[in-house]
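Next up, sample data.

:::
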Amino acid sequence: MSIPTLRTLARELSLSRTTVSDALRGSPRVNAETMARVRAAADAAGYKHNPLTGAVMSQLRRSRGQQFRGVIAAIELVEPNRAPQSLRYSQAVKDGINRRASELGFKVENFEIGPHGLRLSRLDAILLARGIQGLVLLPAAGFPDMTELSWHRYTAVYTDYLIDHPPLHCVCADHYRSMVTLLQELYARGYRRPGLFMEIALDERLQFRWEGAYLATQKYLPEITEVPPLRIESVTQPQFEKWFRKHKPDVVLGHFPEAMAWMTKCGARIPETHAFVCLNSLRTDGDCAALQLPAAELGARATELVIAQLLHNELGVPAEPSLTTLKIKLLEGPTLPARKAAAATGAKRKVKPAVGPA
């Protein structure tokens, strides 16, 4: 039995090869009825369209035969008045995308969506014209909506926890496991009153992973005083100081390094009597211990997944979206010394695991 080709499909359907090719890649130049007829015939014949072919041939013509495998798009939803740490994080993710794409023989084209960038309808037209079908979506504030794109043409991975519109594969930092690991490390260093403060919007955006791990782990570590987390709409000094004076945590975890000054105002001496860990190293200047989010690694892993899906011709919204998580590292700093005597005492007792098989 002969292998079906564009030529045989075109002959069977009495259409040109161009029309058949356009129909298989979802070109708006082909009407819906013809597109459906071509795709039905291709499925019946067992024809498998390679989504990279058009992009490869186009680039080969431009590059005069240099080695090349395809093009993917890095798409960023840009909001006005972005914080500096957000810009640095996005750039690190893009660095990871570009590095891994280059290693795999792919070129990356960058696009910005937002008030000062492209509209989704315009982006859709550009991606189609350039034959780009692999997309890496950078983290966005809130819960992004990308449903306007013609998703039957694309495969994509989102570099954050959750996207519902449409539901896509995601790659993100493992915030839950990292909080568990951090609390166990603090316990080993002798801290017994860990306290967590965070803005409600951030807690919700992470689907309560920081808070959930914090609350669960406190219950399984012996001799731990359960300090309730401070969750507020916007972190302010008066609210923090009220919480700090009432619950007296000996180590504070949060996203805002300015809390160290507030702790000092309440009588804490860092690191002699209290410790502090920032939950995002991009918010610091290296002046405190912090968790380092794997931004570049997220971009690289998302790129690998997108390219793998392209090579397997897996286009469209996935039936079962997956979540891939990467480890967050603790960066040592002057605000987190070990309390050797207390740590030695605690080490004599067996620590129950904070998480485990159900």
In short: The radius of gyration is 26 Å. The first helix runs from residue 6 to 13.
